[in-house]
């Protein structure tokens, strides 16, 4: 909190807790970071899509977060994120959340009025020519055509973000929540120069945006490693950070504006690049993860053996039987090779060790199976349908699950991204 305005902090991690049972184990990872000398602010995020699939309400996320914070005496900021909301879905999140991810991806490419575009270009004549960003050698050459075309592509989406922002502001109050704008769930990556121009439009719209989630180049599949050119990612990520610094200085956006990396879990091969860029620009990052924790619940259950292992196998068998339906909403963010999926009968015969080593995200392990992992990643609906049977086993095996959840979030995510090493 600064002058009555909520601030997110330089380093923050979004965590998803689909069944509202792991908040303590997740917070424990932030405590480990604090003990290692770095404050990483936890943000519990859950999208409308997840709430709908599971049948939960945003208040359950708030209650779990508050309880964890109290139990572990976390005397630092924490937030609840209304993840990927639009004007149609924001209202149910209003009371429970203090972080709003305004998703405008669907409006990219929608036409803006000619007068709005002309007005935008007129307002930003100072961007024309060569823009030199601090901390990087290369410059952006921006012509009137670039400005116009970028406005044609993004201005309507930014205006939509403004509408949603004002709805939240009128309810929560100015400075009483963290606004994020996300554009990641779309087909094309936004270039750093596009990001700069988008930020100009966001500033015009009067949105005090604190985090922005562009779509980066490369594939950010759910729960598995990055697929793409890591050197190119690092280059673009650095330019994005430089563009943000420029936007803060020239467009009057909040000083602590930072990048948000969506589908950020398990992207092990780009974490060194993210960490290096943060150091280079003395900038923060919001790393948004979600489903990786649900997979640790399955790993913990499998590790526990007995009924819990049987349940983990049942989840797989059901997910296998309903794979088409489960994969459909996530088709653009998964790459499952059906030939690599073991049959449910084969899995039925697996030991705890076979199940956990196929699922646990350890690239170097020969047993690791990314197709198996991705199918289970989208299979949380199966566990939701099991209802009490699933939750009772979560509760009965809390210790082993919590150990896996904390270890995954700290060792494989927070430590490499924010501390720059493997925990
Ligand atoms: Zn996203």
Written description of the protein model:
The chain is of the alpha/beta class. It contains 17 helices and ten strands. The strands form two sheets. Strands 1-2-3-4-7-8-9-10 form an eight-stranded parallel barrel, surrounded by six helices. Strands 5-6 form a two-stranded antiparallel sheet. Helix 8 links the parallel strand 9 and strand 10. Helix 1 packs across helix 3, helix 4 packs across helix 5 and helix 5 crosses helix 6. It is globular. The model has no long low-confidence stretch (mean pLDDT 96).
Identify the notable features of this structure and list them briefly:
423 residues; eight-stranded parallel β-barrel; two-stranded antiparallel sheet; 17 helices; 11% strand; binds zinc ion
Helix and strand topology:
Layout: E1 11-15, H1 23-35, E2 41-47, H2 48-54, H3 58-71, E3 79-85, E4 99-103, H4 114-123, E5 129-132, E6 139-142, H5 144-172, E7 178-182, H6 192-204, E8 211-213, H7 230-251, E9 258-261, H8 271-281, E10 285-288, H9 291-304, H10 306-321, H11 323-327, H12 344-348, H13 352-359, H14 370-377, H15 380-386, H16 388-396, H17 398-419
Parallel strand pairs: 1-2, 1-10, 2-3, 3-4, 4-7, 7-8, 8-9, 9-10
Antiparallel strand pairs: 5-6
Helix pairs in contact: 1-3, 1-17, 4-5, 5-6, 6-7, 7-8, 8-17, 9-10, 9-13, 9-17
Residues 84, 182, 184-185, 213, 262 line the site of zinc ion.
Structural class: alpha/beta
Distinct small molecules: zinc ion
Gyration radius, in Å: 21 Å
Number of helices: 17
Helix percentage = 40-55%
Mean pLDDT: 96
**Poorly predicted segments:** none
User: What is the helix/strand order?
Assistant: EHEHHEEHEEHEHEHEHEHHHHHHHHH
Shape field: globular
What's the total count of β strands?
Answer: 10
User: Terminal Cα separation, in Å?
Assistant: 30 Å
Largest sheet composition: 8 strands, parallel, barrel
Strand fraction equals: 5-15%
Strand order of the largest sheet: 1-2-3-4-7-8-9-10
